[in-house]
Design a protein that fits this description.
about 220 residues, alpha/beta, Rossmann fold, six-stranded parallel β-sheet, 10 helices, 8 strands, about 15% strand, Elongator complex protein 5
Amino acid sequence: MDSTRHIQSTGSISEFLQSILKHDPPYTTLIVCSTRDQFLTRLFASVHPAREAVAGRHRIYDKTIGLLSKSSRVRVLFCPTLENLRACLSVIPSQSSTQGRDEVEGRDKARPLLAVVDPLSLHLPTTEFSAQGLSRTFAALAETSFKANMDLIVCECHESIRPEESPWNTQVPLLNSTVRGSEETALFRRTVPVKRVVERWFEFSGRAYAAAGTNE
């Protein structure tokens, strides 16, 4: 069966990581679209929101990354820029062709998992926060999972967010800001919701991992 591609529309980082560790694919590649320090600060804040200021002194820094890094079936990659992310995606298929082959054969050919945290937020400060830029990134994610025969789940983690404020409902212009000229036409002024762009390659699901992790 073809690999599955799902979007988990909202959720906390801690809940998303728990879902990754709870299930048991042959191996998991976890891509975090931020620096390591930014990720750990947000992780601590999601667990102890009233104590964010002391995040640097909390054991969760070592325990969480340590648990992931010590797992023989979980690889964690940090990609703080779009360039980092796209470079990372370009090498995953070749790496996955030799990784976990014995495990796959011993687990009824279950597929490995590619999990990506906050790729949408990675576009926000760039000129590519547009349908054009998002299409390039999410098409690359889908292509990577297909070539590597991996299930793919993407989560944009926003704690305590209301459904109507979902980042996937954000309106974005059709073209990158570097393409739009000073004399913008009606085409350049048009916007579309992020969800409409991403739906070309992904399904949206509140329980995305459960769906992606099945081979039925």
